[in-house]
Write a structure and sequence with these properties.
5 helices, elongated
Length: about 120
């Protein structure tokens, strides 16, 4: 099995990427609609649905730990981009901190081996 198939971070990133793209497309479509147009309310509802899905998937992405160096690289590449897009120039300290914490925890998990259970042998 390839790293892409076994590292959970790739699925988390792709799911979030798709949700963010759907939300962005709905926002762009809404920006082009004349006020009072019959599609205005439908687009507002879609934006709300896509925003909620985006938020859920972002909250799922941040605690997902890569299990490979390729996954860690993907996370470290993706998070700065998404933080910039979501913040849209505003200082959203909680998201920035959460993204930094996610990368740091991922590095730590890859660098530090899992603690081994005690063997029961006394030295």
């Amino acid at each position: 099995m390839s790293t892409l198939q076994t590292d959970p971070i790739f699925v988390a990133i792709e799911s979030h990427r798709q949700a963010y793209a759907q939300h962005s497309e709905a926002v762009d479509a809404y920006a082009k609609v004349d006020p009072g147009h019959s599609s205005e309310r439908r687009l507002q509802a879609l934006i709300g649905e896509f925003q909620a899905r985006h938020d859920v998937l972002l909250r799922a992405l941040l605690p997902t730990r890569p299990t490979s160096t390729a996954g860690l690289t993907a996370l470290a590449t993706y998070l700065p981009d998404i933080v910039r897009q979501v913040e849209d120039g505003a200082a959203d300290k909680p998201l920035t901190e959460a993204a930094l914490e996610a990368v740091c925890a991922a590095i730590q998990a890859l660098v530090e081996p899992e603690p081994r259970p005690a063997s029961g042998l006394q030295t």
